[in-house]
C-alpha cells in the first residue's frame, strides 16, 4: 500500500477504527494482548496492554482523531501519570 493511501485512510478513520488500527499495530509490534479501556474515567489511557503472562503492563496507549490531537494527547499523558502512575505512553 502506498504511504499516501495509508495516510488518507488513517486521517479518515473514526474513533473506533483508530482504536482497531492501534490494537493491530500493538499486536504486530509484539505485545501479547490489549483491551479497550476508553471512556470518561479512563485515566488518560484508551488501550491497556498485557504481557504474555496476562499481566497488564505499566504502559498507557492513547488514541485521538481530534484535529488538535497534540493538545489532547498531552492532557492524556498528564492524566495517566497523575491518576494511574504510568510513565510510558504511546
| Alpha-beta content class | alpha+beta
Mean pLDDT: 85
| Widest sheet: strand ordering | 1-2-3-4
Oligomeric assembly: single chain
DSSP summary: helix tally = 3
Helical content, roughly? 40-55%
Shape from CA axes? globular
Q: Nearest-angstrom radius of gyration?
A: 13 Å
Give the gist of this structure.
With 90 residues, the protein is α+β, with helices and mostly antiparallel strands. It has helices spanning 3-11, 15-28, 69-84, and strands at 33-36, 47-50, 56-61, 88-89.
Show the helix and strand layout.
Elements: H1 3-11, H2 15-28, E1 33-36, E2 47-50, E3 56-61, H3 69-84, E4 88-89
Parallel strand pairs: 3-4
Antiparallel strand pairs: 1-2, 2-3
Question: Your description of this structure?
Answer:
- With 90 residues, the protein is of the alpha+beta class.
- It is built from 3 helices and 4 strands; from the N terminus they run ααβββαβ.
- It has a 4-stranded mixed beta sheet, with helices on both faces.
- It starts with a helix and ends with a strand.
- 16% of the residues are buried.
List keywords for this structure.
alpha+beta; 4 strands; globular; single chain; 4-stranded mixed β-sheet; 3 helices; 90 residues; 43% helix
Amino acid at each position: 500500500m502506498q504511504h499516501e493511501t495509508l495516510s488518507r485512510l488513517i486521517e479518515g478513520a473514526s474513533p473506533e477504527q483508530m482504536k482497531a488500527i492501534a490494537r493491530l499495530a500493538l499486536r504486530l509490534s509484539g505485545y501479547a494482548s490489549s483491551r479497550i479501556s476508553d471512556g470518561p474515567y479512563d485515566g488518560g489511557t484508551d488501550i491497556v496492554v498485557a504481557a504474555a503472562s496476562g499481566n497488564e503492563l505499566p504502559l498507557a496507549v492513547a488514541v485521538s482523531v481530534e484535529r488538535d490531537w497534540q493538545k489532547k494527547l498531552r492532557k492524556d499523558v498528564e492524566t495517566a501519570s497523575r491518576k494511574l502512575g504510568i510513565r510510558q505512553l504511546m
